[in-house]
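DM from R.C. (forwarded with permission)

"hey, sorry to bug you on a friday — could you get me a structure for this? deadline for the figure draft is monday and I only need the backbone to look sensible"
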Amino acid sequence: MDSKRVLDEDAYVRGGAAQTAVKILVVGHFAVGKTTFIGTISEIPPLSTEESMTRVAEAVDDLKGVRSKSTTTVAMDFGRLTISDHVVLYLFGTPGQQRFIQIWEDMARGALGALVLVDPERLADSFAVIDLIEQYGLSYAIAVNRFDHTPERTEAALREALDLLPDTPVVVMDARDENSSAQALITLVRYLQERAALEHA
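My reply, with the result:
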């Protein structure tokens, strides 16, 4: 039996009354790398609800540019990352398709912020996702997930294309790389801390 799958009762909820649990959404359009990101960064075996795509789903979901994709998230992904003795991040990955909007609404409750993953080759697909996050009033950072052979875009070009506010953080990362993914989360957490400090100043 895979020892990584033998989980005790504390596997998903970390003990310790002195710790602060922070709920973070990991969002983005279909096939942008959310499941990969959480699987890479989570310190526990991630909870994933990936299912094989059927011909019916292929007819509904736009597979342009992602023809090799064979699975899709149908509920959520969940992972955990301890960033200090006092702060634990609980990461909730949302499905990227419009038909799962109710799940978004449920998971947005209690979230402190969101990391928005975008594909630099499919920026227009991110508009609806960013609109939803802003509708829920969540602060967010943009994480540009660099895929193999993707041409580089300047931060200025990305900001203009996504119509971002000047203070919205933008970080380039690779969801398959642990250090890169961690840096994206650190960027978001620092931004949330700065906003919280300004609100309480």
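R.C.: lifesaver. Residues 31 and 48 are 15 Å apart (CA to CA).
me: no worries. The chain has a mean pLDDT of 81.
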